[in-house]
From TrEMBL:
<dbReference type="InterPro" id="IPR001360">
    <property type="entry name" value="Glyco_hydro_1"/>
</dbReference>
<dbReference type="InterPro" id="IPR018120">
    <property type="entry name" value="Glyco_hydro_1_AS"/>
</dbReference>
<keyword id="KW-0378">Hydrolase</keyword>
<keyword id="KW-0119">Carbohydrate metabolism</keyword>
<dbReference type="InterPro" id="IPR033132">
    <property type="entry name" value="GH_1_N_CS"/>
</dbReference>
<protein>
    <recommendedName>
        <fullName>Beta-glucosidase</fullName>
        <ecNumber>3.2.1.21</ecNumber>
    </recommendedName>
</protein>
<comment type="similarity">
    <text>Belongs to the glycosyl hydrolase 1 family.</text>
</comment>
<keyword id="KW-0624">Polysaccharide degradation</keyword>
<keyword id="KW-0326">Glycosidase</keyword>
<dbReference type="InterPro" id="IPR017853">
    <property type="entry name" value="GH"/>
</dbReference>
<dbReference type="GO" id="GO:0004565">
    <property type="term" value="F:beta-galactosidase activity"/>
</dbReference>
<dbReference type="Pfam" id="PF00232">
    <property type="entry name" value="Glyco_hydro_1"/>
</dbReference>
<dbReference type="InterPro" id="IPR017736">
    <property type="entry name" value="Glyco_hydro_1_beta-glucosidase"/>
</dbReference>
<keyword id="KW-0136">Cellulose degradation</keyword>
<feature type="active site" description="Nucleophile">
    <location>
        <position position="376"/>
    </location>
</feature>
Length: 475
């Protein structure tokens, strides 16, 4: 993220196939509820995910994050693994109910102390901490007051952000306000597939706005809460959207999905306003009374970098019919999502590394010069430990290799990408999928918490130490 990053020369002029700029940050990412466990330790309150996971039928296998990967107690071992691999950055989220059990009031010092210990452990091993303030674990007490459907939650979030900055401000430079507000708003309050499990299609657009407002209010709170250098961003999950044909119905379908997935979050953050077509869509679905004077200016508080999460792309068509079930697409329930015949990951997402290049170039074209961190990219596969005690995950290596080459190409074309955080360090609680899907480069045996480096971990560590990809593409 430093400004002295060196540009990458065109591929034809380099002896190494894919050398990255000097200072490029190679990291891994996790989130609190997915790995920490210790849900009742040291004054932590309940989150919406505690409630949701303990509700029968919500999570595959009835799994919960009560123990998860027990990172709360085992973080020294996990930090040591990152150091062993030669990684330079660790993106993790802070559990809001660890800091404020009910989402309000003074900070819980025992909760802050855990993150201080974690950050100190990282810094001792020259690993850059990157804090995400919100990765979906809203305090249940705030949800009982309406959660993100309640405008007041945005103000509570800004207060929480200041508490964490005051506690960690002398140790942490990189701060992200929200992770994937699309999921929190539209899966949490629209489709109800994620916590808190609310099915309110119209209300989900209000939740999206309140999440954006929370981001905007948190930015100045973070800057003013403590002295020291700081860089602030937000993390959005982007999906390039293509239309099935030139037919107006298909083009309109792609436009609406692009609004709801990508632009409804990025455009107001970068422009301090909702563009007219976004406002028109919101007005048609739910009205705009929830957007108050001054909100858009607040949402557009200047940021220092943009966090980009990327997993796959969308190919869509119009002409469908809503079946009346809850949908994460308010005002686009008729859109059909098509398969393109590409290979899929273990969670059923088509693999499209070219889509990452497309998305990075689009962001750079729309908002020239914005510094970018790829804050999540990775894949779930059906990993097993072989009789030799190893996990041979060649498919994951190929996935990462392809997406890193797309990243490298984007840099060569002038996109200012400063780092890459692989999702994820550890196998974890994969939200509504429970423990059925493994994204980690470190295998976790959830019976005994034993960690095993997968082949992908060693491969990625070698890439980080080399600061570049091998000349031969991984098959």
């Amino acid at each position: 993220m430093h400004d002295e990053q060196t540009a990458v020369a065109p591929a034809s002029s380099r002896s190494q196939d894919a050398a990255f700029p000097n200072g490029f940050l190679w990291g891994v990412a996790t989130s609190a509820y997915q790995i920490e466990g210790a849900v009742q330790a040291d004054g932590r309150g309940a989150s919406v995910w505690d409630t949701f996971a303990h509700t029968p039928g919500r999570v595959v296998g009835g799994d919960t994050g009560d123990v998860a990967a027990d990172h709360y107690h085992r973080y020294p071992e996990d930090v040591a693994l990152m150091s062993e691999l030669g990684l330079g950055g660790y993106r993790f989220s802070v559990s809001w109910p660890r800091i404020q059990a009910d989402g309000t009031g003074p900070a819980n010092q025992r909760g802050l102390d855990f993150y201080k210990r974690l950050v100190d452990s990282l810094l001792e091993r020259n690993i850059e901490p990157a804090v995400t303030l919100y990765h979906w674990d809203l305090p249940q007490a705030l949800e009982d007051e309406g959660g993100w459907l309640n405008r007041d939650t945005a103000y509570r979030f800004a207060e929480y952000a200041a508490h964490v900055r005051e506690g960690l401000g002398d140790r942490v430079r990189l701060w992200t306000t929200l992770n994937e507000p699309w999921c929190a708003a539209f899966l949490g309050y629209g489709e109800g597939k994620h916590a808190p499990g609310v099915q309110d299609t119209k209300g989900s657009l209000k939740a999206a706005h309140h999440l954006l407002l929370a981001h905007g209010l948190a930015v100045p709170a973070l800057r003013s809460a403590a002295p020291g250098p700081i860089e602030i961003g937000t993390t959005l999950n982007f999906y390039p959207v293509s239309a099935a044909s030139e037919d107006p119905a298909d083009q309109d379908a792609a436009h609406r999905i692009d609004i709801l997935q990508n632009r409804i979050f990025l455009d107001p953050v970068m422009q301090s306003r909702y563009p007219a077509d976004i406002l028109a869509h919101v007005e048609k679905v739910t009205g705009t009374d929830h957007i108050h004077d001054g909100d858009e200016a607040a949402i557009g508080a200047p940021i220092d970098f943009l966090g980009v999460n990327y997993y796959t792309s969308y190919h869509v068509a119009g002409g469908g019919e809503s079946d009346g079930s809850a949908s994460p697409w308010p005002g686009a329930e008729d859109v059909r999502f098509l398969h393109c015949g590409r290979p899929e990951t273990g969670i059923g997402w088509e693999i499209d590394s070219d889509g990452l290049l497309t998305q990075l170039e689009r962001i750079n074209a729309d908002y020239p010069g914005i510094k970018i961190l790829i804050t999540e990219n990775g894949a779930a596969f059906d990993d097993t430990i072989t009789p030799d005690g190893q996990v041979h995950d060649a498919d994951r290596i190929a996935y990462i290799d392809a997406h890193l080459r797309a990243t490298h190409e984007a840099i060569a074309r002038g996109v200012d990408v400063r780092g890459y955080f692989l999702w994820s360090l550890l196998d974890n609680f994969e939200w509504a999928e429970g423990y059925a899907k493994r994204f980690g480069i470190v295998h976790v045996d959830f019976e005994n918490q034993q960690r095993t480096l997968k082949d992908s971990a060693r491969w990625y560590g070698a890439v980080a130490l080399r600061n570049g990809l091998p000349a031969d593409r991984e098959a």
